[in-house]
């Protein structure tokens, strides 16, 4: 029997750039150590589950410029695994390809690092099973040649299990990121392919299993939902099967809220929801949106006010708020004289002369210049059309 962890794209030390400067102090601390915490949780699981191996198929590091702290935290993790008699297999991908050329601390005895040339390493696990692992590290950032032709076919007479580590994407040979052919990969006869590079958890083939575990910790607001690794074993007697384990301490989520009348109601809606981990929220307001919310959105203040009203004990933090523009079917017709078109009326109203009368001299010149420009006026026209479309039908 074999049991191992497949953890692609750890991106240890990722800086989580682009977040608001108003971020709460405790959220800042959670984010700064998020990738380290996720790795610590992986190590804890590996020891509790008594796995034989941990596979890191590329982008273990976020880049080549790693601090002493990053190196030390990883070394501590590897030492814990080594002391538990757990093997570690590491290959480098497009983000950390230079790591294979840099000096590292002396890794513990149970750590195997793959070179730029495809190679096979053989070990024996606690059960006495013979396990072969084949992998490679990127020699440059784009790795435009498939490495699959150099992967040997499994020899069932010499090995009980053969595992492949591959950082790349499906595509044509010659394309970036070691583009590979799935049929060619399956034909190697391996028992499991641990893929890296794609940050979305997905299974490309089930028997044998060819899978991306996704990344250990979501790195931006496009990487939503639980993140973690696969715990793989053949305990059920059905071949190697993968079970997802979530370990990300910070979760990015999209949340849609319909028919919200005001800021207080919006805050109540958020406070009533359960968040198991520190959660960074991108919020979409749909349907009928109250005037207070629409006005604050048009002034560019909605997100900041929502952050200011966020309870200090909340496990969520709003990072983005959008008012979803109604579809044509949702737009309420505006009753105008027969000879007046709404678009034309708005365009005639929003012009440089009228804007100049409304903008105070205290407004920074950069702001005034923007609204005098064609782009600024088109922005105002679009917002005015949306406000009219979303108006309360009982308003005059």
Automatic annotation (TrEMBL):
Domain of life, source organism: Bacteria
GO MF terms held by the record: hydrolase activity
Domain Calcineurin-like phosphoesterase: 2-200
Gene3D superfamilies cross-referenced by the UniProt entry: 3.60.21.10
Keywords: Hydrolase
Pfam family of the protein (one): Metallophos
Record-linked PANTHER family: COMPONENT OF ATP-DEPENDENT DSDNA EXONUCLEASE, PHOSPHOESTERASE
Record-given protein name: Putative phosphoesterase
Natural source organism: Fructobacillus pseudoficulneus
Lineage per the UniProt record: Bacteria, Bacillati, Bacillota, Bacilli, Lactobacillales
């Amino acid at each position: 029997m074999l049991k191992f962890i497949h953890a692609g794209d750890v991106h240890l030390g990722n800086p989580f750039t682009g977040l608001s400067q108003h971020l709460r102090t405790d959220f800042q601390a959670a984010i700064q150590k998020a990738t380290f915490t996720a790795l610590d949780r992986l190590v804890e699981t590996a020891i509790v589950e008594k796995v034989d191996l941990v596979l890191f198929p590329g982008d273990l590091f976020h880049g080549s410029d790693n601090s002493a702290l990053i190196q030390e935290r990883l070394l501590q993790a590897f030492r814990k695994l080594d002391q538990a008699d757990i093997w570690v297999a590491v290959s480098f991908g497009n983000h950390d390809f230079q790591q294979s050329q840099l000096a590292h601390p002396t890794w513990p005895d149970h750590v195997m690092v793959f070179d730029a040339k495809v190679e096979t390493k053989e070990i024996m696990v606690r059960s006495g099973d013979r396990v072969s692992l084949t992998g490679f590290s990127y020699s440059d950032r784009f790795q435009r040649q498939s490495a699959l032709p150099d992967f040997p076919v499994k020899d069932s007479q010499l090995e009980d299990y053969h595992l492949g580590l591959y950082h790349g994407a499906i595509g044509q040979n010659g394309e970036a990121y070691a583009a590979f052919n799935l049929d060619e990969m399956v034909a190697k006869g391996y028992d499991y392919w641990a893929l890296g590079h794609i940050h979305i958890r997905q299974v490309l083939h089930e028997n044998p299993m060819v899978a991306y575990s996704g990344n250990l910790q979501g790195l931006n607001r496009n990487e939503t939902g639980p993140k973690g690794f696969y715990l793989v074993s053949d305990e059920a007697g059905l071949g190697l099967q993968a079970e997802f384990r979530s370990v990300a301490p910070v979760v990015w989520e999209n949340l849609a809220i319909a028919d919200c009348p005001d800021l207080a109601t919006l805050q109540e809606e958020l406070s009533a929801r359960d968040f198991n981990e520190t959660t960074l929220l991108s919020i979409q307001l749909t349907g009928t949106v109250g005037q207070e919310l629409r006005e604050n959105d048009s002034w560019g203040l909605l997100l900041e006010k929502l952050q200011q009203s966020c309870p200090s004990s909340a496990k969520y933090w709003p990072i983005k708020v959008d008012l979803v523009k109604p579809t044509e079917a949702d737009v309420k017709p505006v009753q105008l004289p027969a000879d007046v078109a709404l678009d034309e009326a708005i365009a005639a109203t929003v012009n440089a002369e009228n804007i100049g009368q409304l903008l105070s001299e205290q407004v920074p010149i950069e702001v005034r210049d923007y609204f005098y420009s064609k782009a600024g006026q088109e922005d105002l026209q679009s917002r005015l059309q949306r406000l009219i479309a979303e108006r309360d039908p009982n308003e005059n």
